Amino acid sequence: MKVLLVEDDASLREGMGELIAEQAEVREAGSVAQALEALKEERFALVVTDLRIGDKGEGGRIILEAARQRLQPVAIVSAATAEEVVKVLRPHEPDAVLAKPFQIEDILDLVERFVTLRQQVETAARREPPREGWTEEAAGVRVVEEPGGCLWVRMEPGVSQGRPVNRGRAGFMVVEGSLEVEGERRTGHQYFYLAAGPREVRTHEGCLAVSMALRA
User: What positions are modified (4-aspartylphosphate) (predicted)?
Assistant: First the structure.
């Protein structure tokens, strides 16, 4: 499990990297170009990026857009207020904001939320899905929720809709078949993250997936 850390201040990047490394493997990027290359090469449990990185100060937005396309969660680091960050990034919205100056506990708690989410989804995917309790969410889509918030989703071949279920921010793993989200395809036992808001979801061959919502 790995976190992508994007920060052009070398000393700050080193310090943050040491903290994050207590919970996950870290890949560091000191520029927008390095971050985009990393996103092409690997999938991350979380992308942590400074808002104003880059010559024009627009790097945070560029990285957020790229991570969204790759179905990966993004936390923005900034001295601006959360409201100002959202305004700068609109229509995109980060999955978390780490306000500067931050305490050690703040960054540890941030990373722990997303690492734990992926661990929970991966653990659930190793279990057998429930045999009973399934209900029809939409045409060709059935769901069942287990105690603790684990949600199973089964989609029939050829189904396409805005989203399997409306859960806000959540981690998913395809257990059987394949699922395509706005052109990004995931097959058996591949983890991905869906941010809040509508996303075009489809499956050609049908799929079984398991999901957990990101805790507040």
Answer: 50
